[in-house]
Amino acid sequence: MEDRLEFYNLDVVRKVIDFQFIRTKTFLMQTFFAYLVGFLFPYCLTLSIESAFYLNLLFTLCLFTQFFLIIFEWQQLKEQKW
């Protein structure tokens, strides 16, 4: 156990971990923003809009966003070998 702590306290290892954390945080923020813009905002707008044309447009945007996120998760499952 003591050997592992010494390894993670090395300056090089700490910088690699911090770099990966920053990259992961950036990617997750971009994914969350895509979810907000592509699904959550259009869905909230559908609650107050009565025009059939705009409802279909907003629901289509929600559908494509969900397809994108499902395909992304599917690729991640394949990459990580289920």
Report on the structure:
The protein is mostly helical. The chain has one domain (2-79). 87% of the residues lie in helices and 0% in strands. It has 3 helices and no strands. Helix 2 (11-46) runs antiparallel to helix 3. The chain is elongated and about 65 Å long. The chain starts with a helix and ends with a helix.
Query: What are the segments in which pLDDT stays under 50 over at least 5 consecutive residues?
Result: none
Helix content range: over 70%
SSE string, helices as H and strands as E:
HHH
Summed up, the helix count is: 3
User: Mean of residue pLDDT?
Assistant: 89
Largest sheet, described in full? none
Cα(first) to Cα(last) distance is: 30 Å
DSSP E strands, number: 0
Given helix and strand content, the structural type is: mainly alpha
- The best one-word shape is elongated
How much of the sequence lies in strands comes to under 5%
Tally of separate domains: 1
Q: What's the alpha carbon Rg, rounded to whole Å?
A: 20 Å
Which descriptors apply to this entry?
3 helices, elongated, mainly alpha, 0% strand
Describe, in short, the structure shown.
This protein is 87% helix and 0% strand. By secondary structure, the protein is mainly α. The protein has one domain (2-79).
Helix-strand layout with pairing:
Elements: H1 2-8, H2 11-46, H3 52-79
